[in-house]
Amino acid sequence: MTGTLFSPFDLGDIALANRVVMAPLTRNRAGPGLVPSLLAPEYYAQRASAGLIITEATQVSPQAQGYQNTPGIYTPEQVAAWRRVTDAVHAKGGRIFVQLWHVGRVSHVDLHDGKAPVAPSAIRPEAKTFVNNAFVDVSEPRALELDEIPGIVESFRSSAANAIEAGFDGVEVHGANGYLLDQFLRETANARTDAYGGSIENRARLLLEVVAAVADEIGAGRTGVRLSPVSPASGIVPSGDEQPQFNHVVEALNGLGIAYIHVVEGATGGPRDAAPFDYDALRQRFGNTYIANNGYNLELANSRLGDGKADLIAFGHDFIANPDLVERLKTGTPLAQMEMATIYGGGAQGYTDYPASIASMDA
Ligand SMILES: Cc1cc2nc3c(=O)[nH]c(=O)nc-3n(C[C@H](O)[C@H](O)[C@H](O)COP(=O)(O)O)c2cc1C
């Protein structure tokens, strides 16, 4: 089904007003108990004209945390606060999925009472995390024991159940950007010799078990997955052999009947042609919705939709300074630029105080 960015789209049973997706954006404003910010309902409601909002990455357990002040969805207080967010978005006619996240080795001992972050293998990436109000090197991780893996799967399953309780329309499993599930996919991060490493099938096992558990819990039609096949994000070292790995993953995800795959094409927030990769091979292996992301503007979005290469287009940083991004794209209103200093942490400044354009206020 081709169309323009502004035509409606049925994401399974979920009717979207347009093809613009707000990509997940970490903002580090959660309060005590890693409860979403009191300003989060307003922030997301301001952006509810997107066809679909995907929230900032959200921890499935205390172990899943890698940065300061990122929210969770594993306590009753967190679930109650997310309910205020989903109510605010739904009141404005929007749709919203939560991105479920385990950072794995991209973390720091200071967030875990001095204990090492967990990973497929004890391989420390060249990556930074944000703790104690500063960017610092991640800590040396330890390899997960085989008998710890069911607990990881369970934390995604129970968080998905919490997401439905909180009123989300669905969940996106974060399988991208060098975090735990992506770490398992990579030869350069996963040196395991058990059922979770050593072959394409074994490296994909954890991601697929997590997605199957989430889909079983809340329905495949409410489940999506984010992937970033060639992104070096969070210290992922490319193997040059990503195509067969991701072809296999997407074939298996197709077999699970999930609603969508959300593909970061190229280096996250960087060049789209960071490494050769055939994204069409993924699209052809997947029967349901393909969300494309990374470096899109109106022209590229409409060209990829028109060619049938994507069904929905996710915009990331443009949504930070342009709450009414859909309207601005539609009317050709120039886009505001985000202020770097207020991206991560703080309060309303650089979060809920970006104005809508005059054009959209008149609309
Ligand atoms: C401030 C910021 C925070 C981000 N947080 C997340 C996140 O929580 N989860 C995720 O999957 N990607 C995250 N990303 C990546 C974006 O979702 C998106 O892939 C990237 O910005 C490229 O899209 P764009 O060119 O439209 O900005 C983040 C990007 C930015 C700029």
Describe the structure concisely for a colleague:
The protein is of the alpha/beta class and 363 residues long. The protein is built from eleven helices and 14 strands. It has helices at 40-46, 76-91, 149-165, 180-185, 200-218, 242-256, 279-285, 298-306, 318-321, 325-331, 358-362; strands at 9-11, 14-16, 20-22, 52-59, 96-101, 118-119, 128-131, 134-137, 142-143, 170-174, 223-227, 260-264, 289-293, 312-315.
| CATH topology-level fold name | TIM Barrel
Work out the radius of gyration.
19 Å
Q: What portion of residues is helical?
A: 25-40%
| Protein structure class | alpha/beta
Coarse shape: globular
Topology pattern, helix = H, strand = E: EEEHEHEEEEEHEHHEHEHEHEHHH
* Number of structural domains: 1
Q: What are the distinct ligands in this entry? A: flavin mononucleotide
What separation lies between the terminal Cα atoms? Answer: 28 Å
The mean pLDDT is 97
CATH architecture identity: Alpha-Beta Barrel
